[in-house]
Write a structure and sequence with these properties.
heterodimer; A: mainly alpha; Butyryl-CoA Dehydrogenase, subunit A, domain 3; 7 helices; 70% helix; globular; B: 193 residues
């Protein structure tokens, strides 16, 4: 297995999930994941010895997400009803779809930040990817969590 | 948020098996040819070819009137403008901006502003040079035959008129609307940083 294949195998699921968080659309997420790894392939020689290859790949992916606004396709953001009654035990897929829906309603940078938080990236790395100070990222994460908490509580999914 | 770990677990449960396998992805990236670049490359090749043909004509066709030479040079200049702007565009496209999201949004904003500048200024200059060049170029070839002069100049004026007053405004309007919408969205994102 070559280096590229190893990198792809390790990071493509992460990148796909981040793209899903941004677009809430599997096809678009898959397209941007592939586009990201085409860029990685083209530029791997330049960055092979970089210490934080994951930071580099996340930067490419999130920049590709932002660049996607050049295309006509929009993020799927159907407004959720404020008080959605829980009528049955939700499946894992339904819960995940609800999470994506909640994230899709956030602003672009917030979508990127929360996706990286959920990927368990340290705040310093998130700050480096997004281009904000660590303090600013911390504040933003706090606000995003609050926003998500309100949505989840309204849906009765929050303890 | 006391159940962030639950959210993380939920987040990680997303199915990613629809992604290509590493071997398949490697085949795909090796075969990848960007369609967006192809169009620009075709424009560059055609413009270069036109410039070479015109330069060759200027050297070996034995024109006697200076208007022909001026026309030829003007059209070569407009071909060069076309080549340079498209080359710069390709260079920007290939430059992988290893930068943060905030810097990247600024970079796209600048690129879009350059594009608007191209439509408003560079394109107008290039089209003006070509129009004048074409009119001057024809003169030596047709000036001895009045009927041919009328036909050639009428056809040229109609063609240039359509390009100036129909095609360009239409394309400009369409592109300007798209670019302005994009800049608005970029500004909105910029404010988030």
């Amino acid at each position: 297995m070559t280096s590229f294949e190893e990198i792809y195998a390790k990071h493509s699921p992460q990148i796909f999930r981040v793209c899903m968080g941004y677009f809430n659309d599997p096809d678009q997420a898959k397209d941007i994941t592939q586009e990201t790894f085409i860029s990685v392939w083209k530029n791997l020689d330049t960055f092979r010895n970089e210490s934080h290859i994951s930071t580099w790949i996340f930067r490419i992916a999130t920049n590709n997400c932002l660049r996607a606004l050049e295309k006509s396709k929009r993020v799927i953001t159907t407004e959720l009803p404020a008080n959605l009654p829980v009528l049955h035990e939700e499946t894992q897929e339904e819960k995940l779809a609800f999470l994506y829906q909640c994230i899709a309603e956030l602003e672009e940078t917030e979508r990127i930040i929360i996706s990286l938080v959920l990927e368990d990236l340290p705040q310093a790395e998130i700050a480096e990817i997004v281009g904000l100070s660590a303090g600013n990222v911390r504040v933003k994460i706090h606000r995003i969590k609050e926003k998500l908490a309100i949505k989840f509580k309204a849906n009765g999914q929050f303890r | 948020m006391d159940n962030l770990d639950d959210l993380k677990a939920l987040w990680l449960s997303a199915k990613t098996d629809s992604l290509p396998q590493p071997e398949e992805m490697l085949r795909m990236v090796k075969k990848f040819r960007d369609q967006r670049i192809r169009r620009k490359v075709i424009i560059i090749v055609i413009a270069l070819l036109c410039a070479v043909i015109m330069f060759w004509g200027m050297l070996f066709d034995g024109f006697t009137m200076f208007t022909t030479y001026i026309g030829d040079v003007l059209m070569i200049i407009s071909c060069i403008i076309l080549v340079v702007t498209n080359l710069r565009s390709i260079k920007r496209f290939y430059q992988l901006k290893d930068c943060s999201n905030a810097e990247f949004v600024q970079f796209i904003e600048r690129t879009r502003q350059n594009q608007i500048y191209f439509y408003k200024n560079t394109q107008v200059i290039a089209m003006s040079i070509t129009s004048v060049g074409l009119m001057l170029y024809w003169y030596e070839l047709v000036h001895r035959k009045p009927a041919l002069t009328i036909i050639i100049y009428s056809a040229t004026i109609i063609y240039l008129g359509v390009m100036w007053f129909v095609v360009r405004p239409r394309v400009f309007k369409k592109n300007a609307r798209k670019l302005n919408e994009m800049l608005e969205r970029l500004e909105k994102i910029s404010k988030q940083f």
